[in-house]
Amino acid sequence: MAITMYQADRNFVSPANDASLYSALAGDSNGIINRGNKFNITNDGLVATINTGQAIIQGRLVEITEAEQLTLPANSSGKICIVVDLTKTNDASGSAGDTSYAVTVNQVYLAAVTGTLTQYDLNNGGFIYELPIASFTTTATTVTVTQIASAFNDTGWINATIPSGSNKNQSNAYAQYRVINDLVYFRFRSIYCVGSYGGNQVMQLPSIYMPSVPYDQHFAGSNIDDNTGQSSPCDFVFQSKSGGTTVYGDWNQNLFNKLTGATASGSYPLN
């Protein structure tokens, strides 16, 4: 027969079958889940220590049960990755079903990747998938590490930082962001920006939530004149700055010093 059902009496479910199912249930998403220390990373010189945690990578559950160390290359930049590599062969000892049976899994490991990430579809014939959990920049002796946000993390709505000189113009004004399943959602209402540099700085997001191409992330909103109640279209854009990402208004129109009630909402992918 050319048709089968893996979850059937007496049938055999391979790791590949299992991973395909779980990947689909996870929306074919990959990322860190809220377990252990979520791969929190510390460093001493060029040695990074990756703490405990779990991730779903192409439907495969990967776990670090004890802190692992990884030496990063000097004078470079790249990503610290968990790598699922199906070209490797796992080692087994004992007989399957016996209490002495054990498997050494060689098909997953940590790596410092300085070039383009390899991310093939393991459920459709691919063999290697590199999941970035942090980015790094090194000198000859030191390293700066920035954690990459989890794809399966729901932060809930968080109040965003409002740039110096801007403020909430009404009692029901807000500026917030939220991260769900590798998407950053943001919203703001009635943010008075006239006092900020350029008169158009609306809100700031942490640097780990910066869009991959910040200048190309435009979104539509409005500028409400809180004195007259009149609303006019407004174009907003992200710009990376030291310590975070700032949302600016009227980037293309250069209508500076006029954002008296910036209002908009939207979302964008992290990667």
Tell me about this structure:
- It is a single chain.
- The protein is mainly β and 271 residues long.
- The protein folds into two domains: 15-147, Triple-stranded beta-helix (Sandwich), CATH 2.60.520; 158-269, Phage bIL170 RBP, head domain (Immunoglobulin-like).
- It contains one helix and 21 strands.
- The chain has one helix spanning 15-25; strands at residues 31-33, 41-44, 47-50, 53-57, 60-64, 68-71, 77-85, 91-93, 102-104, 108-113, 128-138, 143-147, 158-159, 167-168, 174-180, 183-192, 201-205, 218-224, 231-241, 244-249, 262-269.
- Strands 13, 14, 15, 16, 17, 18, 19, 20 and 21 form a nine-stranded antiparallel β-sheet that branches. The protein has a four-stranded antiparallel β-sheet with strand order 10-7-11-12, with no helix packed on it. Strands 1-4-5 form a three-stranded antiparallel β-sheet.
Summarize this structure briefly:
This protein is mainly beta and 271 residues long.
Give the arrangement of secondary structure elements:
Elements: H1 15-25, E1 31-33, E2 41-44, E3 47-50, E4 53-57, E5 60-64, E6 68-71, E7 77-85, E8 91-93, E9 102-104, E10 108-113, E11 128-138, E12 143-147, E13 158-159, E14 167-168, E15 174-180, E16 183-192, E17 201-205, E18 218-224, E19 231-241, E20 244-249, E21 262-269
Antiparallel strand pairs: 1-4, 2-3, 3-6, 4-5, 7-10, 7-11, 8-9, 11-12, 13-15, 14-16, 15-16, 16-21, 17-20, 18-19, 18-21, 19-20
